[in-house]
Design a protein that fits this description.
The strands form six sheets. The protein has a nine-stranded mixed β-sheet, sandwiched between helices. A six-stranded mixed β-sheet has the order 4-5-7-8-18-19, sandwiched between helices. A four-stranded antiparallel β-sheet has the order 16-17-20-21. It is of the alpha/beta class. A hairpin with a 2-residue loop joins β22 and β23. The protein has two domains: 376 residues, ANL, N-terminal domain (Rossmann fold), CATH 3.40.50.12780; 101 residues, GMP Synthetase, Chain A, domain 3 (2-Layer Sandwich). 50% of the residues are buried. Helix content is 31%, strand content 26%. The chain is globular and about 65 Å long. The N and C termini lie far apart (68 Å).
Length: 482
């Protein structure tokens, strides 16, 4: 396709008009032409303008090609240095390669297993050796070097594995761009805005922020880990942030009013209690609830800005590029352009989408006048003494208790009832008796956990969704000791 960037009103307009057979200019290159001196990435180590970021991507393109990487290559990176990971990602897309983004918490053996399972090349945690930063403009300053084939396998992300083994989900460049386009219909994001990167880049919630910022021409703010979340929001004059419930709880614990610059706080990634949202509203935080998954390239549904206190806060309405249905068994089924290509397997890609384009999420929910409320995971439910228990229902009630930041409920074997619930709870003071008293007023007796164990917020914050299978094993071990 021949194009002139100067003829395009905005990058999101370009994405909206995109035809499947046509390449897209890289959004970084687009904004380097339109707003060269605007800050693209703001971070503790310094800022990068869109012009500087584009030059760095071009240098990485040269380095990757000189290292033998090309179309179809599988690059792997742990985003310990987030700028480096972003450069690998966008340089990779320009040469038609895919980038495997791996958790920074994986030990060496697990890293080796992940590389082997995905067929990725050696971990690229340093810049390609051929990158020198010299004369890259002369080498790569042509329109062809700016193009991205939207159909390529752009990224590979491991799912949270909330109820089983993580799977490698593959997204095309088109999936990510379409997700950013859909998000723009709900969230006002424009040049001059700043989105704080408070979620890991190796999770889809963090990766989506990168695409939203760069397609909109906004600034991506990398967090200074030495500062608290509230300090980062105030000091960096942030306009947008995405958080999981644990992070929101910790932010509110700082007991500071919401910064005047903050316009959007997107909260999702798991169970979010109504009590937590009410506390945030009282502190002046502009909260939206949201629902999505790795497979959907982040957002599927997003709510209005919540300003009033109510009993429940739905995840909101579907974005324009998604359709939502509820199956007979209450499973949430979705269809839309951001849906992933499938799961990576030794044979290729397993589609996981039916012939009509619908994906079964494994989540349970209800639709009421177009508003989606998520109940919990279909495979998380268990039976205790003949009664169905949805652990997320218990978690919501625990999260409404004073001082609680995080909670996860899992079953343990029981001779009499088959399975019984136990709870891991992160709270300011381990006053589990007070939680039990609250639950006795709110839940039937069979849903009250038999035991409570302390939980550090880091265990949940490391993954936007807790891996229930891991906590279930820990719970069985702890229960056997008591």
């Amino acid at each position: 396709m021949s194009f002139r960037i100067s003829d395009i009103d905005s990058y999101l307009d370009l994405v909206a008009r995109w035809a499947p057979a046509e390449p897209l200019p890289c959004p970084i290159a687009y904004h380097a032409r339109r707003r060269a001196d605007q800050v693209a990435i703001q971070g503790p180590e310094g800022d990068l303008s869109y012009r500087q970021l584009d030059r760095a991507v071009r240098a990485y393109v040269v380095g990757l090609k000189d290292s033998g990487a090309g179309r179809g290559a599988r690059l792997a990176v742990q985003p310990i240095d987030q700028v480096h990971a972003i450069l690998i990602l966008f340089a990779g897309m320009r040469i038609g390669a895919s980038t495997l983004l791996l958790s920074t918490r994986l030990p060496e053996e697990a890293l080796t297993d992940a590389l082997r399972a995905t067929g990725a090349e050696t971990l690229l945690n340093v810049a390609p050796t051929a990158v020198t930063g010299n004369d890259t403009d002369e080498v790569t300053n042509d329109a062809q070097s700016e193009l991205i084939d939207p159909s390529i396998r752009a990224t590979v992300l491991f799912t949270s594995g909330s109820s089983g083994a993580p799977r490698a989900a593959v997204h095309s460049a088109a999936n990510h761009f379409s997700s950013a386009l859909g998000s723009s219909s709900a969230l006002a994001l424009a040049p001059g805005d700043a989105w704080l990167m408070a979620l890991p880049l190796y999770h889809v919630g963090g990766l989506a922020i990168v695409f939203r910022c760069f397609t909109s021409g906004a600034t991506l703010v990398l967090r200074d880990e030495k500062a608290s979340l509230g300090e980062s929001l105030r000091r960096e004059r942030v306009s947008h942030v995405s958080l999981v419930a644990t992070q929101l709880g910790r932010l509110l614990a700082e007991d500071e009013p919401a910064p005047a610059t903050l316009r959007e706080v997107l909260v999702g990634g798991g169970i979010v209690s109504s009590g937590l949202i009410k506390r945030a509203i009282r502190s002046g935080y502009p909260i939206r609830t949201t629902y999505g998954s790795t497979e959907t390239a982040s957002q599927v549904a997003t709510s209005q800005l919540w300003t009033d206190e109510r009993e429940a806060y739905p995840a909101g309405r579907s974005l324009p590029n998604f359709k939502i249905r509820i199956a007979f068994d209450r499973e949430i089924i979705v269809k839309g352009d951001p849906l992933f290509m499938g799961y990576l397997s030794p044979e290729g890609i397993d589609r996981a989408i039916d012939d009509e384009g619908w994906y079964r999420t494994g989540d349970l929910g209800v639709l009421d006048s177009g508003e989606l409320t998520v109940i919990g995971r279909k495979d998380a439910m268990f039976i205790s003494g003949g009664e169905n228990i949805q652990p997320e229902e218990i978690e919501r009630e625990i999260l409404n208790c004073e001082g609680v930041s995080s909670a996860i409920v899992v079953p343990v074997p029981d001779v009499e009832f088959g399975q019984r619930p136990v709870a891991f709870v992160d709270m300011r003071e381990d006053d589990f008796d007070s939680i039990r008293l609250v639950l006795e007023r709110r839940l039937p007796h069979f849903k009250i956990p038999d035991a409570f164990f302390p939980l550090t917020g880091d265990e949940l914050e490391a993954s936007t969704k807790a891996r229930r299978s891991e906590f279930q094993l820990r719970a069985a071990e702890l229960a056997a000791m008591h």
